[in-house]
Design a protein that fits this description.
By secondary structure, the protein is α+β, with helices and mostly antiparallel strands. It folds into three domains: about 160 residues, no CATH class; about 190 residues, 6 Propeller (Neuraminidase), CATH 2.120.10.30; about 260 residues, Alpha/Beta hydrolase fold, catalytic domain (Rossmann fold, 3-Layer(aba) Sandwich), CATH 3.40.50. Helices cover about 15% and strands about 30% of the residues. The chain is built from twelve helices and 37 strands. Strands 29, 30, 31, 32, 33, 34, 35, 36 and 37 form a nine-stranded mixed β-sheet that branches.
Length: about 700
């Protein structure tokens, strides 16, 4: 079987070189096209800028799984030299490429056979080559600047919670502080829970009591191998490690209050420890979270991100370091007058600070001098850049790009963002047969003067003389955003004959801090206006949309809003609600994320009982008339399935047309990272529900009727 899908992948890549028949019949995107989609990520450019490594992910339909490999592209003069080539063994899973400082070695993560050490190394002297371990390194390496040392954080060992044959594998199933007793410890195979953190979305199994898990600590070992030295023995997990420029010490981040289930504060701090038997020293203080450390090239400044409290603005700060690597003077903020949210910083050879940030529907690279002042946008365009990696001299950088019409591909450019060139074309061949309608920007104003941004995709085969239905798509979060990225759901609906409207209402990121938190304490009540005025704006700009055939759909917060809009308005003729919230009080008791509403609803349910009930769609369910498809994962611990069940029973009792799809072995991220087959099935069910209720049996459009 494995040989078969490897052959398919090689054939897919070869197709990119064929000349496409311009006269071939193109079609719209179908759910099963997901199996052909190739994703690229984790770009890592070599120190000399002559190679870029990246992870390629394909879908293996027959095995119902994803397969990851590391590929490479040679560069000459900052541009591609030849074609990309596979670097790792195609019969093994490989990801997370990292370069040694001299560019002669690449590390990668790969589970191979029965070997428990997933960290491997390869010499970059020819394509591929035998991978090997470095004695003492058993986690992703962070090299010292001189290449003499490797640091890493060792993940805590977790018990195999799937097996119950050996009592030791059930370590942590009975809380150590439990009061109750059992008659037969060997016979009891249930759980005794005393911690609120007994489940976590994305983990199908329940979690053991936190006290049985070891904390990840910081280790160093000579780059040539040897016995690893443990530098920390803290009561919290160590992460975000960065070497000082002279290699004598390391910075890391950690949260000493991470096990305090009752803390609502942000308490992550920056620490410093000497490489040789040092005692960790905390450099920042609480409250607030400081993270994402980056050291300037001359070693005199440290840049980091700081968030004073939940819901407050994140800023980029720098601080001067003394000879011992400690803070010298007060940190300065470089983004005081900037209304967007900076990402993790890095330094250019010219000692400016760079970072990525969302801006509207796009994501780009920005830079600011250490004296603060004007923040300059380095890259541009209606697209999203991710994973920017830069050569040591700053002359070449690599990153991935996606836009409304294209899945991710690798690009390279000069350090200043010019002379950009596309490196990979994994998706070009199969997309050549697909008709993708472009996303057209639309904006409108709401009562408080805010401008709301959205996009409209027309139906494939659109004819001006016909009327079409439309689906409003709502993103999750609420502090997320749609925009200039490839959404297969939108193109699948477009292919089926729908206009698709997707928007970034108040509550979305990328438009400033005030905009992001404008919905606090009023979810649904504030942003309903943004969605409904958006529908009105689309009807004005696109008069061929039939106002009587408008559907609504979303997942997570978008599922909540789908329920809310169908319960509080009569604008929608059909709905698909995914991983939704129906009842905020019951959600609070079953979710793994109570902190979300504790902040957004200004307290817990017993502190804000009226608000929780007022903002719950179930409070208005008697108003729902829209036929509704409910999609939920059985192991969703973020928005547990009981919310979907409540909505289903309420609609069923009221004889509103309703179906509920329960997906097994799936968590909150089904539509993004779920089993490929289940993900594709979800797309088809969403499509077919809207086709049934909003489109005639014989045609996706109808002649215009006099109104």
């Amino acid at each position: 079987m494995r040989r078969t899908w490897i052959t398919i992948f090689v054939g897919l890549w070869a197709l990119a070189a064929w000349t496409h028949n311009a006269h071939a019949q193109r079609r719209g995107l179908q759910p099963e096209d997901y199996y052909r989609e190739v994703n690229v990520s984790q770009t890592a450019i070599s120190p000399a800028g002559d190679l870029v490594a990246f992870t390629v992910t394909i879908i293996v339909e027959d095995d119902n799984q994803r397969h990851r490999e590391i590929w490479m592209q040679r560069l000459r003069g900052g541009g591609p030299d030849g074609e990309p080539f596979r670097f790792t063994d195609p019969t093994e899973e490989s990801s997370d490429p990292r370069w040694s400082p001299d560019g002669r070695m690449l590390s990668l993560q790969s589970q191979r056979g029965e070997d428990t050490n997933t960290t491997w190394f390869a010499r970059v002297t020819a394509p591929g080559g035998e991978v090997y371990h470095i004695n003492g390194v058993d986690s992703a390496p962070v090299w010292s600047p001189d290449g003499e040392w490797i640091a890493y954080t060792k993940a805590p060992e977790t018990a195999d919670l799937e097996s119950t044959d050996d009592p030791e594998t059930r370590r942590g199933w009975i809380a150590p502080d439990a009061i109750t007793q059992t008659l037969d410890a060997e016979r009891f195979d249930g759980r005794v829970v005393t911690s609120m953190r007994y489940k976590r979305d994305g983990r199908l199994q329940l979690q053991p009591h936190p006290s049985v898990n070891e904390k990840s600590q910081l280790f160093v070992v000579a780059a040539t191998g040897g016995k690893a030295i443990q530098l920390t023995a803290l009561d919290f997990n160590v992460g975000g490690i960065v070497w000082s420029r002279d290699g004598s010490s390391l910075y890391f981040t950690g949260d000493e209050f991470e096990d305090d289930e009752y803390s609502r504060d942000l308490t992550t701090d920056i620490y410093l420890v000497a490489r040789e038997d040092g005692e960790p020293r905390r450099l920042t203080s609480n409250p607030g979270a400081e993270r994402s450390v980056a050291i300037s090239n001359n070693g005199t400044f440290l840049a980091y991100l700081a968030t004073p409290a939940r819901g407050e603005e994140t800023n980029l700060k720098i601080v001067r370091l003394d000879a011992r690597g400690r803070f010298s003077g007060a940190p300065r903020t470089l983004t005081n007058e900037w209304n967007l949210t900076p990402g993790a910083p890095s330094w250019t050879p010219e000692e400016t600070v760079r970072f990525s940030a969302a801006t509207g529907g796009s994501a780009h690279l920005f830079e600011v001098p250490t004296q603060a002042g004007l923040i300059r946008q380095v890259t541009n365009g209606a697209r999203r850049l991710q994973g920017v990696s830069t050569s040591d001299d700053g002359q070449v950088m690599a990153y991935t790009v996606t836009d409304a019409d294209s899945p991710t591909e690798v690009f390279v450019a000069r350090g200043d963002g010019t002379a950009e060139q596309k490196v990979t074309s994994f998706n070009d061949a199969w997309l050549a047969d697909i008709e993708l309608m472009p996303a057209e920007r639309l904006s409108w104003l709401v009562e408080d003067g805010s401008e709301i941004e959205g996009w409209v995709i027309k139906p494939v085969g659109y004819q001006p003389g016909m009327e079409y239905p439309m689906v409003l798509k709502i993103h999750g979060g609420p502090h997320g955003a749609y925009g200039d990225t490839f959404f297969r759901t939108f193109h699948t609906l477009s292919s089926a004959g729908f206009f698709v409207l997707y928007t970034n209402p108040r509550g979305s990121t990328g438009y400033g801090h005030t905009f992001t938190y404008a919905t606090r304490g009023a979810w649904g009540e504030v942003d309903s206006e943004d969605y409904l005025r958006g529908v009105d704006a689309a009807l004005v700009k696109y008069p061929r949309i039939d106002p009587d055939r408008i559907g609504v759909s979303g997942g997570s917060y978008g599922g909540f809003m789908t329920n809310w809009l169908t319960a509080t308005t009569d604008r929608f003729a059909a709905a698909v609600t995914s991983r939704s919230i129906t009842n905020w009080e019951s959600w609070y008791g079953a979710s793994d994320a109570q902190g979300l509403t504790e902040h957004e609803f200004l307290g817990a349910p017993w502190e804000q009982r009226e608000l929780y009930r007022r903002l719950s769609p179930i409070s208005y369910v008697e108003n729902v008339t829209a036929p509704t498809l409910i999609i939920h994962s059985e192991n969703d611990y973020r928005t547990p399935i009981a919310d979907g069940e409540q909505w289903f029973i309420a609609l069923k009792k009221r004889q509103v047309p309703v179906e509920m799809i329960r997906y097994p072995r799936s968590s909150h991220g089904l539509s993004r990272t779920g089993e490929p087959w289940l993900l594709v099935d979800r797309l088809e069910r969403l499509r077919s529900w809207f086709v049934h209720w909003l489109i005639d049996d014989t045609t996706a459009a109808k002649p215009i009727q006099a109104r």
